Amino acid sequence: MLFSPGWRAPIRQGEVLAVFTLGLLAGGTLSAAVVWLLSGLTEPVPAPARAASIIGIAALAVARETGLLPIPLPQNARQIAPEVLQTRLRRGSLQFGFELGTGVRTYVSASTPYVLALGLLLAHRSLATTLLTGAAFGAGRALSAALTYLARDEHRDAAIAARMPHTKTTTAIATLIALSLLLT
Amino acid sequence: MPELTAGRLRRGLTEPFLPVAALSLLAVAAAALDATVLCWASVGALAGFALSGSV
Predict the structure, then answer these.
(1) Do B52 and A144 touch (CB under 8 A)?
(2) Among the four A27, A57, A115, A180, which has the fewest Cβ within 10 Å?
(3) Using one digit for the tens of pLDDT, what is the confidence trace for A29-61?
(4) Is the minimum CB–CB distance between A92 and chain B shorter than 8 Å?
(5) pLDDT at position A78, please?
(6) Nearest 5 degrees, angle CA A35-CA B45-CA A81?
(7) Is A179 on the interface with B (CB under 8 A)?
(8) Is A178's CB within 8 Å of B43's CB?
(9) A87: pLDDT confidence band, cut at 50, 70 and 90?
């Protein structure tokens, strides 16, 4: 959607990607700031209990991605209106990226973002670590767009769709292993 | 042996699963080394990348 040719020709696609990435980073950072503010509420819970909860949530995410447990998760089940890209492309790309970056304005098709949000909420890390993690979330989303831009492949959507089941499962398993190692 | 053309190289380098493998290894390695910030950042990037193709 972001890199379709034709009417967008007057603005270079690389510029669109840069502005979109900026929006993603800002959106991820904002969501992380909100999580960090809320994470203070979990501080009275003993650290071992919080660590066990994070690992338990990560394990549930693996069970969900592997089809063992059909856990329904809340999401804002809508797409960001394409109109944001149809008037002012630079500002629209920034808004589009920002909304995607927050992670709460559109579909969430994988379990790991929930583990990340709840993990940061329960772990109550420093503000800097939490904000950096939020920005990294935005960067992860931007990486996907950057690779699509660089691939110059008209069948890119199909290639991504074909790898999505493995992507979601591997991501959930890696998150479980990493957080288990880190928190125990 | 198939010839390595620019198109094949580009396809290989932009393979959608490559960042998943790299970030997964980074997250686990950072956790094993107790590099807390890097571990959380890697998990953050993984979570973002897991939403590839979702708008």
Answers:
(1) yes
(2) A180
(3) 999 999 999 999 999 999 999 999 999 999 999
(4) no
(5) 78
(6) 75
(7) yes
(8) yes
(9) confident
Average pLDDT, chain B: 90
A-B CB pairs within 8 A amount to: 173
State pTM to two decimals: 0.91
A27: nearest Cα among A80, A88, A78 = A80
A93 at interface of B, judged by CB pairs closer than 8 A = no
Q: Tell me, what's the ipTM?
A: 0.91
List all residues of chain A from 34 to 73 with a beta carbon under 8 Å from chain B: none
Q: Where are the domains of chain A?
A: 13-183
- Looking at beta carbons, which residues of chain B come within 8 Å of A161? 53
3-state SS, one letter per residue, for chain A: CCCCCCCCCCCCHHHHHHHHHHHHHHHHHHHHHHHHHHHHHHCCCCHHHHHHHHHHHHHHHHHHHCCCCCCCCCCCCCCCCHHHHCCCHHHHHHHHHHHHHHCCCCCCCCCHHHHHHHHHHHHCCCHHHHHHHHHHHHHHHHHHHHHHHHHCCCCHHHHHHHHHHHHHHHHHHHHHHHHHHHHC
Query: Is A80 an 8 Å CB contact of chain B?
Result: yes
